[in-house]
Amino acid sequence: DLDRARLEQVQQEVAAAQQALEETDRKIKEVQEAVRAASIEQDKVDADLKDLRKRHGSLATEAAKYARQKAAAEGAAAAAEQKAKDLIASAALDQLPVPRVGGSTILSDEGAAAAGAGEEGEGAEPMDVDGEAGPSTGPSSRGGAGSATLYSIDFSGLKVPKSAKDREATLRELQEAIDAAAADLEGRSPNLRAVEQYDTVKEKEKEMNAVLEEAKREAHSAQAGFNTTRDARTQAFLDAFNHISNEIDVIYKELTRSSMHPLGGNAYLSLEDQDEPYQAGIKYTAMPPTKRFRDMEQLSGGEKTVAALALLFAIHSYRPSPFFVLDEVDAALDATNVARVAHYIRDKTRGLGNNDNNEAEQRGVETDRGPSSFQSIVISLKDIFYEKADALVGVARDVDGACSRTFTFDLSAFGEPQPAED
Question: What global pTM score does this model have?
Fold first, then answer.
């Protein structure tokens, strides 16, 4: 019985606890519903607040825009008012009556006073008295006496245009009337200093004519000097060109002549501009024996070297220099052409040969080159070349002295070298 009573008591406690738990769950659900409702209300409030902030920003932007428009309108109004004051002052100075309300007109002293008031008021900043703000925007406070005069003008007699086209037509009519009045005024007031001004202009014209004539004389003198210099330059160029052009074919034939080709090759110069040759190029053409016409770029290295040496010797024949320094000009030549060039240089150091004299006599060319008028220093590594020299200078390393050493050898005591074999 005791255990049964204990069990019933426990069951009652469990039932009470179960009931309390259900009550707690119900309250929790109510609280959750309340929290959910509060969250929804908060989201709605946040959305309303966001909308209000957006409207606030839009209203602030619009207010700033209206403030800028207001400032621009006030500036335009101030500029228009100042322009009106300037017009009143100008009318007063020109003694033009300006109608005002009541039938009277603005006198000259009133117009000057209005102009002075406008100038004093221009750029002046309003002063605060006893902490109060600046002046009001009324006519009496914004311009003083000048503004009062301005607002008392009677505009009832003016024709108000109804459209922009009418306004432009009215402005055009007024401008034409102003131009006509200005022309009439100018015609009624002759220039009393016209004669004096004419004499001044005439004197200035005489001075300028003298300067012009002097400039013309200087220009003619400069042109004559230029023509003389140009003619002298052209003649000097043609003298050198004609001599070199005549010599180069003979020299090239001598450098390319052989037993198989006794006539040698052909070489000639031609001007690209016959009228002003010094302003254009010179065409150099060289044709080795048995070779057809080719541009200089298509010749071999040895053929170009022989052609270049012929041009060099031809230029030297016009105004000979004391001596030549030739640095390995035989690098691209074969043994036969090296021997020909060496014999040519050797013959020239001893004066003109028979071939040169014959060619010169046939062409009627005067030559003043005597014996030993042609001297040269040749740097060469080929014995076929330097064995035909009058003297040799060698450079070698001195091992004992740890320096370079020169050696000279006179070949004049030996016999003449044999001519080149073709």
Answer: 0.46
